[in-house]
Amino acid sequence: MQRTVGRDNPFEKEIRSCLNKEGLRFRIHYPLPGLKRTSCDIAFPGLTTAIFLDGCFWHSCPDHPPAVKKNADFWLAKLKRNRERDERTTRALTDSGWLVLRFWQHENTDSIVQAIMSAVSARRSSLLSRSKSLDNV
Ligand SMILES: [Zn+2]
Q1: Digit-coded pLDDT (tens) for 76-117
Q2: Domains, the chain, ranges and CATH?
Q3: Ligand 1 is a single-atom ion; what residues have CB below 5 A from it?
Q4: pLDDT of 26-60, one tens digit each?
Q5: Ligand 1 centre from 83 Cα, in Å?
Q6: Rounded alpha-carbon distances, angstroms, from residue 24 to 60, 77, 103, 120
Q7: Exposure of 110 by Cβ count < 10 A (0-12 exposed, 13-18 middle, 19+ buried)?
């Protein structure tokens, strides 16, 4: 069983270092507004964009079903709670206007980085055009 819970696992570190190299500035382990004890792995607060880098085990990746033998009931119940919490978090953020991106640990690093970069730049230009149109009011 791969324990990737907790902070700063290799998956997060790698994505963060790639984003740094691309010159993006972001916050890590950012506490989410209105959500108690919930943070996202990478945040662009100015762009109200939250990125979650989900470990396959802890977040129940459909491609990698958990192989738990001991205490299976306990683990399955725990993973189910994690999954439900993820869904609640995504919904709450989306409802309050955040852009939420979730990636699986097994996904290709380059594709994740590209996806984040294009989402961030799209977000930036849409916010920019919104503020311009407000200027014209
Ligand atoms: Zn997976």
Answers
A1: 999 999 999 999 999 999 999 999 999 999 999 999 999 999
A2: 10-135 (3.40.960.10)
A3: 56, 61, 63-64, 104, 106
A4: 999 999 988 988 999 999 999 999 999 999 999 99
A5: 14
A6: 29, 38, 18, 9
A7: exposed
